[in-house]
């Protein structure tokens, strides 16, 4: 308070001074040159025209009034750095506009800004200022005030807004301000058409008086700590084009009368605690983008959503919505994406959402959606994500789905799909994740899967795939996870897997794979999990596997024979080797396996023994047991009986 008093005195003093002092243009030149010199030299190249030889009115970024005095300074987006010399700038008598947005200016903003009494437009937004913002109550002519995202902290002087009744644009969001209730000065700014108060620590309720701001076309209150209900007075904002309320803690229902906001194009009330049905939004005929995800909405998706002619983005995930999706949904406009995951939706997938050829995302994970995948999506070459896992979908997957050229995820797991993965997959050049587990898919995996070179995860587990694993799978250099378990795959494990150097998880359990375990698997240094249990693998366990550090290791129930490599004989792997009656143990650690007979011992060990002998180890020692350490490899004990 004392601060403002003091300031008013100074202001008066200054006013008396200037009243007897008629400014001249040469002063303005020096004021501008002073501004230039306050800015960092390395960033003022754009101000090269600012010099003694030019008229100030021809300076880059300067607009003069009819008398040749500076009226506007427009220097936004020029990467300027430095500290603004507000004391001298505000001596520019006729200054009405100061525009410094989108630079890298720093330092505090001082109360001297109050001297810019004629300012109508002030933009300091998107800079790196610090400290709290001063009370600038003198700037009663302001129409636009942009202070968003410029680093102001502490208490904001909300009271000053009471004096700024001409404001049409107020943008204060994205500043780390102290927590504050919704400022009651704001609903009195009747001329406001643009209010950006997102992410600036507003708490408590949205006041019903917000309904007085009938000129508003944009109201953004997202990323705050607002609670309580959305006041029904909001439906008086007939001109509203955008309403952003997401990421607060709003409760209750969507207000009755919301449907009156017929100009609304963008509505986002996601990530709140809202409940009740969403029937009001069905009447918002101009909606382009509707986001209501992460709330507790229930009831049906309004059938009217299917008639919205401009709808482009629809995100309703993580609610408790029931019923069918309107079948004509997204068919009218250049539809972009739908995410209705994690609801209780039933009925078929609306078939026309890609009709305009622009759709990028179809996400309907975890619902009770049934029927087939509409053939139209096989043609939808713009799709980046196709995820319908955990539904009740069935039928044959349209071939084009496998070959979607820009899709990075195709996820249809946990459904009742049947039929094969077709060779169209060779076109899926961007596909990182192919997740089709827990279906009734069948047939052979196409060899050309190796042409889908972006693949990171292939999850085809728990289906009825048969035939061989494509030999070329090892050319997939980014492959990280391979889940092939619980199918009817046969033949051998491809040697080429040894060149999948990024792989960490291989599960081929529960198939009919035969032949040897390729010893090259031992060279996969990133391998963390290897499960080959319940197959028909035979031969010895490759000694190379000893070098791997596996969290999960399972070779149980195969037809493996011969000695178990020493380092695999540890308790953590207990059970990993059961069900292979042909395996034997050469240590005392795995009591459940038969002991290896010396003459059936590993030939390598025999060779080591011979070397031992040849080196002149005593015959006496040899009869008790010879301990040798194989250089470069892990310790291998040889016990002789
Ligand atoms: C001026 O800019 C340079 C390069 O961006 C920077 O290193 C220097 O610290 C800046 N000086 C001031 C006074 O901002
Ligand atoms: C919120 O504002 C802070 C600055 O106060 C900024 O760093 C952050 O990115 C903003 N958050 C969002 C989600 O825009
Ligand atoms: C949100 O509101 C509910 C009910 O009013 C309250 O229980 C909860 O603590 C609030 N959550 C946060 C993060 O403020
Ligand atoms: C919605 O608008 C109609 C017609 O303008 C009006 O009669 C009705 O009272 C309004 N409803 C609300 C809740 O504002
Ligand atoms: C739809 O959402 C996408 C992705 O978030 C965004 O890039 C696009 O601008 C949105 N379109 C409209 C019209 O809001
Ligand atoms: C599938 O969805 C149900 C709820 O509908 C959920 O309980 C279950 O965990 C989900 N299963 C998977 C594998 O995601
Ligand atoms: C896919 O596109 C082709 C060519 O544009 C068209 O002939 C065919 O009917 C389309 N199929 C579907 C199912 O939309
Ligand atoms: C290996 O995979 C099979 C089949 O999915 C599973 O039953 C078994 O528990 C897995 N082994 C381990 C150690 O998890
Ligand atoms: C290891 O397996 C054997 C036989 O399967 C069992 O008796 C023993 O309890 C298991 N030990 C541990 C630590 O799981």
UniProtKB/TrEMBL annotation:
Residues 133-271 form the Disease resistance R13L4/SHOC-2-like LRR domain. It comes from the Eukaryota. Keywords: ATP-binding, Glycoprotein, Leucine-rich repeat, Membrane, Nucleotide-binding, Repeat, Signal, Transmembrane, Transmembrane helix. It holds the Pfam family LRR_1. Residues 1-26 form the signal peptide. It is a single-pass membrane protein. The chain crosses the membrane at residues 606-629. InterPro entries: Leu-rich_rpt, LRR_dom_sf, LRR_N_plant-typ, LRR_R13L4/SHOC2-like, StomDev_PlantInt_Reg. GO terms for molecular function: ATP binding; kinase activity. PROSITE patterns: LRR (PS51450). Residues 26-65 form the Leucine-rich repeat-containing N-terminal plant-type domain. It is found in: Membrane. GO terms for cellular component: membrane. Its main location: membrane. The keyword Ubl conjugation does not apply. GO terms for biological process: defense response; post-embryonic development; response to other organism. This is Receptor-like protein kinase HAIKU2. It comes from Hibiscus syriacus (Rose of Sharon).
């Amino acid at each position: 308070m004392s601060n403002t008093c003091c300031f008013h005195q100074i202001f008066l003093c200054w006013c008396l001074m200037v009243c007897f002092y008629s400014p001249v243009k040469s002063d303005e030149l020096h004021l501008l040159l002073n501004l230039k010199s306050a800015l960092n030299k390395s960033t003022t190249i754009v101000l090269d025209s600012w010099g003694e030889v030019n008229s100030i009115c021809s300076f880059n970024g300067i607009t003069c009034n009819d008398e040749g005095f500076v009226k506007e300074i427009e220097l936004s987006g020029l990467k300027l750095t430095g500290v603004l010399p507000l004391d001298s700038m505000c001596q520019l008598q006729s200054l009405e506009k100061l525009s410094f947005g989108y630079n890298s200016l720093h330092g505090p903003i001082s109360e001297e800004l109050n001297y810019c009494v004629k300012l109508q437009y002030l933009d300091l937004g998107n800079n790196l200022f610090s400290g709290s913002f001063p009370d600038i109550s003198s700037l009663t002519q302001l129409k636009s005030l942009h202070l968003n995202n410029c680093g102001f902290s502490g208490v904001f002087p909300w009271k000053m807004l009471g004096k700024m009744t001409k404001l049409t644009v107020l943008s204060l969001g994205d500043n780390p301000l102290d927590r504050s209730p919704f400022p009651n000065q704001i609903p009195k700014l009747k001329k406001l058409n643009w209010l950006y108060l997102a992410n600036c620590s507003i708490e408590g309720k949205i006041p019903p008086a917000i309904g007085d701001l009938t000129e508003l076309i944009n109201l953004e209150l997202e990323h705050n700590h607002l609670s309580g209900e959305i006041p029904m007075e909001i439906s008086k904002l007939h001109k509203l084009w955008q309403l952003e309320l997401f990421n607060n803690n709003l409760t209750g229902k969507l207000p009755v009368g919301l449907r009156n906001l017929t100009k609304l194009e963008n509505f986002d009330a996601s990530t709140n605690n809202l409940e009740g049905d969403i029937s009001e939004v069905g009447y918002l005929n101009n909606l382009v983008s509707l986001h209501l995800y992460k709330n507790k909405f229930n009831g049906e998706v309004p059938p009217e959503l299917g008639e919205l002619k401009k709808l482009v983005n629809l995100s309703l995930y993580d609610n408790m919505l029931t019923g069918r999706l309107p079948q004509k949904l997204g068919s009218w406009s250049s539809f972009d994406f739908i995410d209705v995951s994690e609801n209780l939706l039933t009925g078929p997938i609306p078939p026309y959402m890609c009709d305009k050829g622009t759709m990028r995302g179809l996400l309907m994970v975890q619902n009770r959606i049934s029927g087939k995948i509409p053939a139209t999506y096989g043609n939808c070459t713009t799709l980046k994500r196709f995820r319908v896992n955990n539904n009740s979908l069935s039928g044959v997957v349209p071939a084009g789905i496998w070959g979607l050229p820009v899709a990075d995820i195709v996820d249809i797991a946990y459904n009742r799909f049947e039929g094969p993965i077709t060779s169209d997959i060779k076109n899926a050049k961007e596909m990182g994740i192919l997740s089709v587990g827990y279906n009734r898919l069948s047939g052979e995996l196409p060899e050309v899967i190796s042409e889908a070179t972006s693949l990171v995860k292939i999850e085809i587990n728990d289906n009825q795939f048969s035939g061989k694993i494509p030999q070329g799978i090892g050319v997939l250099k980014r492959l990280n996870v391979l889940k092939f378990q619980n199918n009817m795959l046969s033949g051998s494990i491809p040697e080429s897997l040894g060149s999948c150097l990024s792989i960490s998880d291989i599960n081929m359990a529960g198939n009919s794979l035969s032949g040897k375990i390729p010893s090259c698997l031992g060279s996969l240094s990133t391998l963390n999990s290897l499960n080959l249990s319940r197959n028909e693998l035979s031969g010895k366990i490759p000694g190379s596997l000893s070098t791997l550090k596996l969290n999960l290791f399972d070779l149980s129930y195969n037809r493996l024979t011969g000695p178990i490599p020493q380092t695999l004989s540890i308790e953590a792997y207990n059970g990993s080797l059961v069900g292979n009656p042909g395996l034997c143990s050469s240590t005392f650690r795995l009591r459940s396996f038969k002991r290896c007979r010396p003459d059936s011992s590993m030939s390598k060990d025999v060779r080591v023994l011979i070397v031992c002998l040849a080196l002149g180890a005593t015959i006496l020692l040899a009869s008790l047991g010879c301990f040798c350490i194989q250089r470069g490899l892990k310790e291998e004990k040889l016990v002789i009986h």
